[in-house]
Amino acid sequence: MNAMASFGILAFSIAAIQGAIAAVTFTVPSKVHTGGYRYAPLDPAPVGISFEFFAFPSYFTNVTATTQCLSNWKDLTGVWPPIRIGGTTQDRALYDSSTSAYVVYSVSSPADAPASLTFGSRFLTLAGSYGGTVVVGLNRGKNQIQNTIDAAKVVVSEVKNLLAIELGNEPEYYSRAGQPIASGSWSPAIDAASQNNWDILVGSAVKKTSIIQAGNSNDSPPTWGAAELIATENATVKQYVKTYAHHNYPGGSVNSLMSHKGISTNLHVFDADVAAALKEKKPYVFGETNSVSGGGAATVSPTFGAGLWTMDYVLRASYSNISRTYFHHGTVGNCQYCFWGRYSMGAPYYGAYAATDFLAKASHLTALDDGSSNYAAYVSFGSDGAPLKALLYKSDYFSGSGSRSSQSFVLKGLAESSLKAKRLTADSAQSRADQGAKVTYGGQSFTDGDCKIAGTETYETLAVSNGQATVTLSASEALLVFL
Question: What is the pLDDT of residue 97?
């Protein structure tokens, strides 16, 4: 054997060893609550949408894609996704029983949000026509309790799938926004007393317990958090609380946003709040969330990387016992993080769709990784306790230039002889569907303007040998494996 041949064999051997070392291995539990993993129960539809209050009617009357985009998820889960109607403009909105319009306001530009507005019963009738659960946010900032009670009574009568009513949005900002309720001193303690009082007044007025979605702050806990709020509540208040909610906008670059390790770290901030809510036997939700606050960042929020963040964030939140995650949609036509608009689809919708597909018809999920690396693995389980699907994610950032790294994932504990899988992919983490870049899930895409599924569904076949299968993911890719 010559020297060159020997060198070639040596190089191949070293590469094989490095490949074996580089592979990440996960064992799929044969049944829920086994294998030493922590498991989280799942809501029937964990992925939801939050609509900015003043824009809500427009999304359902002027944006063709809205109903189809939501229906796509319903086709996977069997139930309409939950929606929440609220945001900054809920605390600028007063109920007007005399108006026949959905909302009444004026703005200097269509891209603006109104500084004040009124809404009528027709607004709430529209909300009541939706097939999924609905959370409606009402005004507390203006400190007009009777107006809010009048609105709440119409909410209860018109919104048949009403889940809860919010009383105020992000109250920590009331003082700087000049809201009348914070005209004196304002603090978490003063706000908690206000919330508790309003919960009782509104709950008793509409004659319903378990009706309030409490909290709704955006600052990072523990300040303005659920644990802090719960500590101020007595039994009278607690009977009116249905859920505790917090808002979350992680922000950052595309690279930092989509990092699996970064997502895990961000969500651990809420551990104590979640535990406090669960101790009260109340669900904890992200009532409003998205990539970057203020409607999103043009260089971050519309990218495929933000779509991968959306997918992983939903799953890690669910794993953290956050029951539902409502992704906020702001001003129509001026919303960088929106999943869809009047004319184009956003790459984040693909991540939300993949997450919904993974969670559909599942009763529990677990994470097979500890959140300390950029490589993620999840397994969902059916009501019979058997594993349904696995999802693998390589969150290493690929900008679109240079070489794109790959990673081998090994799944062990498999009983099948072969498996099928669907890949979530794009040319790079910077790809933007709204600018014509190709983003696909299982070879399919969603058409601009109407959100219909286009293309032929494509499955990859994974060979299983001795109970294990090996798959390769490129940087900034995910794979859903059907077990």
Answer: 97
pTM score, two decimals? 0.94
Q: Which residue's structure tokens are 């651990």?
A: 268
Cβ-contact 147, 154 below 8 angstroms: no
Distance CA 154, CA 201 (A): 15
**What's 125's domain CATH number?**
3.20.20.80
Q: Which domain holds residue 91?
A: 44-361
In this structure, the strands spanning 83-86 and 134-138 are parallel
Distances (CA, A) of 274 to 11, 27, 312, 315: 51, 28, 19, 15
Q: How do residues 297-312 score in pLDDT, each as one tens digit?
A: 999 999 999 999 999 9
Helix (H) or strand (E) holding 57: helix 56-61
Query: How many separate domains does the chain show?
Result: 2
Q: How far apart are CA 44 and CA 333, in angstroms?
A: 31
Does residue 33 sit in the same domain as residue 48? no
Is 281 within 8 Å of 41 (Cβ atoms)? Answer: no
Nearest Cα neighbor of 243 from 206, 192, 209 is: 209
Which residue, of 361, 387, 408, is where some domain finishes? Answer: 361
Per-residue pLDDT tens digits for 108-121: 998 999 999 999 99
AA identity, residue 276: A
Query: Do residues 388 and 304 both lie within one domain?
Result: no
Average pLDDT, integer, range 26-50? 97
Number of Cβ atoms within 10 Å of the Cβ of 410: 14
